[in-house]
Amino acid sequence: KPFVKRTLIALVALTAIFGLIGYFVLPGIVKSKAEEILAEKLHRKTTIKAIEIHPYSLEATIRGVKMMEPDGATVFVSFDELYANLQAQSIFRAAPVVREVRLVNPYVHLVHIDGARYNVSDIIELVQSQPPSDEPAKFSINNILIDGGKIEFDDRPEKVLHTVEDLRIGV
Question: Which one of 60, 120, 135, 169 is separated from 154 by 20 to 30 angstroms, measured CA to CA?
C-alpha cells in the first residue's frame, strides 16, 4: 500500500536525520554555546575540548573542560570527562531522569581571600540574586561516580594550602 510505504520511508528518514543532527551537528552547537554562556554569566573563560552526543542511546560525554579564574591565569575548575546517560522516561516525565553520571579527574581550586570572601563568592552571589522558584525541581540522578581528582583549598589569611587528592566517590 502506497500510504504505508510512504509513512515507513518518512519514519526511517526522520530517524536517520535525528541521528545525524544529534551526532554531528548538535555537539558543535552545544560546545560553542556552553563556552559563550559560561563566560558571560560567570565572567570566567571556559574551554571545552570536545562533546559527544549519542542521540539514540541518550548518552553524552564532555571532555577536557577548563574554567579559569576571572584573571584568566589560574585554573578554577576542570575535569577530563563528564559522562551522562539519560533514560527515555525523561521524555514521558518531562523531567531529566539520569541513569548514570561519571566525572573523571575533577579539579577545584578554592581560595579564601579574606574575611568571608572566597574566589567563588561572586558565583554564590549570582545564584542568590536569582528569584526563587515556587515549584520544586523535578529530576532524578542515579549512580553518581567521581573517579580521581583533586581539591585545593588555599587559605591565604592563614598561609596554608589544604589538598584532597585521588578522590573516589560513588553514590
Answer: 169
Q: Hey, is 90 helix, strand or coil?
A: helix
Instruction: Report pLDDT digits (tens) over 129-171.
Output: 999 888 888 899 999 999 999 999 999 999 999 999 999 999 9
Cell of 64: 577536557
Cβ pair 53, 83 in contact under 8 A: no
- pLDDT tens, residue by residue, 119-131: 999 999 999 999 9
Burial 67-76 (b: 16+ CB within 10 A, else e): bbbeeeeeeb
CA–CA distance from 156 to each of 48, 64, 69, 118, 131 (Å)? 30, 29, 16, 10, 33
Is the confidence at residue 89, as pLDDT, over 90? no
Supply the DSSP symbol for 171: -
